[in-house]
Amino acid sequence: MSRIIAGAAAGARLGSVPGTGTRPTTDRTKEALFSWLEARGWCEGTDVLDLFAGSGALGLEALSRGAASVVLVERDRRAAQVCRANAALVARAAGGRPARVLVQAVERFLASAEAESADLVLADPPYPLDGDELTAVLEAAAAALAPGGLLVLERSVRSAPPAAPGRLEPVESRTYGESALYFWQDPR
Questions:
Q1: Where in the sequence is the signal peptide annotated (predicted)?
Q2: What is the pTM of this model?
Q3: Where are the domains of the chain?
């Protein structure tokens, strides 16, 4: 079971998606990611887009830590129900700032007019999504960034390192156990 690590909803236990269709980010990786983000001012007051949200743990961690808005995009209906329940739990603890949960494929969402300019995009796609498909998602996610925005991708350390999408510049990459995190920023 995942939990909110810090912020207004610290300690809240999040529901998990039943079955093996999702791969939750470990608390260790989530803690390291958000320590990195907070140290650089990427949580407080930001607009966050959580792609392939699963239980919503990453986006909701950002909400707990002061994000201005969070959109969770998840195509699986069961996972989206868990996202909604978790979002309600965190919203109560964080002073009523709710996250929006959208039930649709990430690719479809990013191609729509509904894809808003986000300061921070968190993407944790299923590991089988690779090659040209992953590149296309990253390119579309880069287009959803506000000027100066940050895109963070979580992948398996066994996956080939992805190329920087479009105009984004690599900031750094880090590994935590079996997870690799890639950080890219829009130079505008």
A1: none
A2: 0.94
A3: 27-185
Tell me the per-residue pLDDT of 8-67, one tens digit each, with 9 for 90 and over.
999 999 999 886 556 678 888 999 999 999 999 999 999 999 999 999 999 999 999 999
The CATH number of 27-185 is which of 3.20.20.70, 3.30.1300.10, 3.40.50.150, 3.30.70.2470? Answer: 3.40.50.150
How far apart are alpha carbons 168 and 158 in whole angstroms? 23
Residue 75 in contact with residue 104, Cβ under 8 Å? yes
Judge contact between 154 and 29, C-beta under 8 A.
yes
Q: At what angle do helices 57-64 and 27-39 cross, to 10 degrees?
A: 40
CA–CA separation, 150 and 35 (whole Å): 15
Given the DSSP bridges, would you call strands 145-156 and 169-176 parallel, antiparallel or unpaired?
A: unpaired
Helix (H) or strand (E) holding 134: helix 131-143
